[in-house]
Amino acid sequence: MTQVIQTPEQQFYLAKLLGYSYEIVYKPGAQNRVADALSRVHCLLITVPHLDFIDKFKAQLATDEDFQQWMTQVQLQPEEFPHYQIRDGLAFFKGKLFLPTHSSFKQVLLEEFHASPLGGHSGIHRTYGRLQENVFWFGMRKDVVEFVKNCSVCQQTKPANHSPYGLLQPLPIPDRVWEDISLDFIVGLPSFQTCTVILVVVDRLSKAAHFGMLPTQFTAVK
């Protein structure tokens, strides 16, 4: 086995198979009749999938005069647009369906690839990964991030992936004044007598406070 494990699906099944003792034996497709039975049914050749989305998308593009002019320019000057192709009234960028930035079908695709049963409300990276394999528009990653973060279903049902919050541990209450103090520094103040820092010392029991000026470069001694 020299194939590199790349996709999340391959990693998932590899983790499942690690618990078994097995031997992989290669069998050519012509001999593996059980696995290839469905793929070699001749009747399937006449079954052509048809997507209503494509027809509606074409109808929208037909009314977009600016985009139609751009597609005409791509066809007349292909050397100026090396990564673009026009086929059957659609634009493609590096083999992927290209959508105008202002197209309303971006929302349709985001819903399909994230919120539908096919999308399964996956995270940002998986949703973007599925989209970029098929379509492209400028600013697609930003749109995916915003769409997934604003998904109401994900916000209500997705578990938190961060570490659990730490438990609050209140400090014990001191018995005497100035037995326990807290201090902090106020920095970035206008200079006064070469001092730009104020040291604030507060007694935790009485809340009495003392203030002292310090130079910018202060140390523990001064």
TrEMBL record:
Organism source for this protein?
Answer: Trifolium pratense
The protein's name in its UniProt record? Integrase zinc-binding domain-containing protein
Offer one Pfam family short name for this entry.
Integrase_H2C2
Concerning InterPro entries, the annotation shows:
Integrase_H2C2 (IPR041588), Retrovirus_Pol_polyprotein (IPR050951)
- Gene3D superfamilies, per the entry: 1.10.340.70
Q: Which residues form the Integrase zinc-binding domain?
A: 103-159
